[in-house]
Amino acid sequence: MKTLLIAVIAVFLLPVLASAQFTISGSVSEQTKHTGLPGASISLKNTNNGINSNSRGEYQLKNIKAGKYVLTVSFVGYETQHQTIEVNGDQRIDFELKPSAYLADEVIVMATRATEKSGTTYKNVSKADIAVNNFGQDLPFIINNTPGVVVTSDAGAGVGYTGIRIRGSDAARINVTVNGVPLNDSESQGAFWVNMPDFASSVESIQIQRGVGTSSNGAAAFGGSLNIQTSAPALDPYAEVNSTYGSFNTLKNTVKIGTGLIDNKFSFDGRLSRIQSDGFVDRGASLLKSYFLSGAYHGKTDLLRINVFSGSEKTYQSWNGVPESRLRGDLQGMKDYIVRNELTGADADNLLNSDSRKYNSFLYKDQNDNYWQDHYQVLYAKQFNDKLSFNGALHYTYGRGYYEEFKAGQLFADYGLKNPVINGAPVLSTDLVRRRWLNNNFYGATYSFNYKASSSLNFTVGGAYNQYRGKHYGQISWSQVSSNLNNSDHYYDGDGNKNDFNVYTKVSYSPAEKLNLFADLQYRALKYDITGKDNDLLPLNVHDKLNFFNPKIGASYFIDPKSNIYASLSVANKEGNRDDYVNANVGTVPHPERLYNVEAGYRIKDSRYSAGINVYGMFYKDQLVVTGKVSDVGASIRQNVPNSSRLGIEFDGSYTLSRYFLVNANAAISRNKIKDFSEFIHNYDTKKEDMYTYTNTNISFSPDAVLFGELVYKPFTGFAIALQSKYVSKQYMDNTQNEGRKLNGYWVNNLRLGYDFSFKGVKNMNIGLLANNILNKKYESNGYTYGSYSGGNRVTENFYFPQAGTNLLLSLNVRF
């Protein structure tokens, strides 16, 4: 056996030991002025060997095995060049790039993206990176393997309602923009990827900024930012068909078409997608549809692009999770749960007899969430001269939808209805089906001017003005006993209106060749009004005006062309979400949160490896957290805690062992604490709330360690096998650091295979396989908890969201 193992290792290492290594070097310059282009991208196609040119436009690719390659050189604003080369020794190849005949799409997002000179911690995810991981799961799962990211899925398999956390911060604290346009919902402040199914198929690149990041549009980033750029046009016409099928009857069908550049000026692209899945949990089904249309005019100094994209979702609700007693198979615990929650008949049988990891409390056949969202973007960029440029956008988003639910034994009075009289006696309650609607309009404008005063001084001035108009209302679509309300009437109506304005100035200055200083100053003002009635029929009359100043400063020092160090200090302020305002006691509003963010790091990149390591401190003032406190009308509320913090160190690296082997790895180690925390527990014996105080406790859902590793093996051109492994340490479901209310740590391994090839009539065919959780680990990635006192004892209710065991997704992509 030992001899066999040595032989197997030898076979794998033979290509490494036998291959001769050579170097390609040269320079990249501008064709007319013959000046070097620093930061140009140089890479060997279908390999992981790539580098950026240094401050003089020079480059060097090392450790290249003899063979035939395609060398690609690109730089924003210039035409990309491809050169086929035969490597059998060291070579020098110089490039002179010609200014592009049209303005590149990258200018649309340049104002809100970080660079090596901005002193910001970030990760760029390319179109190729997205494509190899896109099997139809929501976008959070596609970027799951980036530093400090933890994802979860209500239905357990990455389709339907999914969530993402960066550095322990949830989606409501992650700023998301698409082409610089805010995506987060103005009231809840979250980004709901279920409303944008298969959006990843229309994405060119994503920049993930961790921490506060650079000034952007929309709500402040309190954990990170996702800056998304939609697809740039292909040079040539194309048609593409993609299909995925896998476990839980998951099916994805995507069709994409594009004209390429017509007369070097016009382009049109389109995508149509459908995704459906039964989900891992019982009845966790989803039916998702979307489209993306884009047309553009590309001038030499102008770019006009119009994007229209839309998504619709019908998702059976699985957001209640699994009670701990059902998950652990605790029969007595389930019986106690049935008594406490007054379950009867089918509901009790469902709890007792369901699969312990697939239990779904909902049984009503139409317990669905239904939502439609349409996006319209008009994007314009103008290069006035070699110093001054502009880009701006007009946008409009229309969203509408409802979730439907069956409710037993509902009091007519709770819906503002009169008690019907039957046979001379009033009827107080009835079984009913209700729909809770959200109808909203979001529109506005974003802009930025960039002025490059000199090679060492750059200014950006930008901002946005956005308006949100949301309507919240409810309907009773069916009731067992008729009332005085028609099923189209509203039993409550509420409005949420928000005006959001911001302006920012960014300055980048290099007083010396290796040193760059960066400053970013943002002023943000908002006005938020909530009126009408909420779903509990209580009147709403909230009016708040806030003004925020968000300064950021940073510095980068380039040790040599391959490496640099950076540091930054940023301040961000953030308002509470709708629930914070609605659930607060009458006459009170939540204090806004403030974050002081310190980042420092070191980055290095060579032809064979790239690596970055950074340390950070995030210090919160008045962070809003769940404490168990309820308002004077019994609603759960978040409260401000005076002092809390996140301290951590992160690593992100890639190393090419040989032409055949590549290793990717990242790690996030952190300490996340609330200095003083008060928990409130309702006591049914005394009819009051008991308070318990804690010191220096962990912030909920903030793992101390998130680790990822990937080994990629490419035995021949076009074929790759990747073994991925991710570890997430334990997380507490509340802020008390109680071992009885936690998510256990988990270690999950995936396997991904991909093979690209072509033949006559087909530009590229890709066959892909994604095997998730290949070791069949049983784990829960999310949950929630609450408690109370009754009969002198504390009762704790823990709920979990189990994720699927071993499951497969097989894809076929054909591009013509």
Can you tell me about this structure?
The protein is mainly beta and about 800 residues long. It has 2 domains: about 240-320 and about 360-815, TonB-dependent receptor, beta-barrel domain (Maltoporin, Chain A); about 320-360, no CATH class. It contains 7 helices and 45 strands. The strands form 7 sheets. The chain has a 22-stranded antiparallel β-barrel. β10 (about 150-155) and β11 form a beta hairpin. The longest helix has 17 residues, at about 1-20. It is globular. The two termini are about 50 Å apart. GO terms for molecular function: siderophore uptake transmembrane transporter activity.
Give structural attributes.
816 residues; mainly beta; Maltoporin, Chain A; 22-stranded antiparallel barrel; 5-stranded mixed β-sheet; 7 helices; 45 strands; 7% helix
What do the pLDDT scores average to?
Answer: 90
- Uncertain parts: 1-19
Kindly estimate the percentage of residues that lie in beta strands according to DSSP: over 45%
Helix content: under 10%
In DSSP terms (H or I, runs of 4 or more residues), the helix count works out at 7
Shape call:
globular
CATH class of the largest domain: Mainly Beta
Distance between the termini: 48 Å
Largest sheet: 22 strands, antiparallel, barrel
| Domains (count) | 2
Please identify, by name, the CATH architecture of the largest domain: Beta Barrel
User: Can you identify the CATH superfamily of the largest domain?
Assistant: TonB-dependent receptor, beta-barrel domain
Which structural class fits the helix and strand makeup? mainly beta
Membrane topology: Multi-pass membrane protein
Organism: Pedobacter lusitanus
Pfam families: CarbopepD_reg_2, Plug, TonB_dep_Rec_b-barrel
Domain TonB-dependent receptor plug: 120-224
